[in-house]
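Researcher: Next sequence.
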Amino acid sequence: MARAALFDVDGTLVDTNHLHVVTWWEALRQAGHDVTMHDIHRAIGLGSDDLLAHLLGEDRDQDQDARLSAAHTALYGTYFDRLPPLEGAQDLLRELAGRGRRIVLATSAGGLELKALRRAIDADDVITGVASADDVAEGKPAPDPVHRALELAETDASDAVFVGDTVWDMKAAARAGVRAVAVLCGGIPRTDLEEAGAEAVYDGPADLLGLLDTSVLAQMERG
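Model: Next structure:
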């Protein structure tokens, strides 16, 4: 059975979380919703429908959801040609692939947004597959994206590690039975990530790469 490294994208490999915060804030503001950026930040990583339910409540006017999502997409789309990869992201994926890990992305992004993210990472030659928002019935924190990533990697949960930056990533990995590693570059506090199931926490991709030989991924290789 192949071993796999599964990765979230936004905030984990590409420095986009705060862009999402600002563009969701503006989309909500334009529709008359007063939501703090702090609360929006904590919801980043959820799919659009779940994010709106988390921020506005289940009793909101759901007829607005499509318009709010479209407004966010339009605002965020202005950054597609300059999304910044996080330091060490490409090198980390290439190093893990060189060590025999199958690299699969598990993200709530889809369509043109996903294309822009993959262009920013610039490592398609070592990425085995992508479990996107277009491929699953439920997004994180449901385990569906992780289950789909395992299918694409053709491996079992016991032979995979998931790397993400939000509590939703950690919960999705835990529910799928996959060991989880967190990074702080998405802006979520260490304690929140650990409480959600992170087995180890690193500053970002470059930090994980520098400490790779003592990481959970290396432990599994030796095991």
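Model: The two ends are 13 Å apart (CA to CA). The mean pLDDT is 95.
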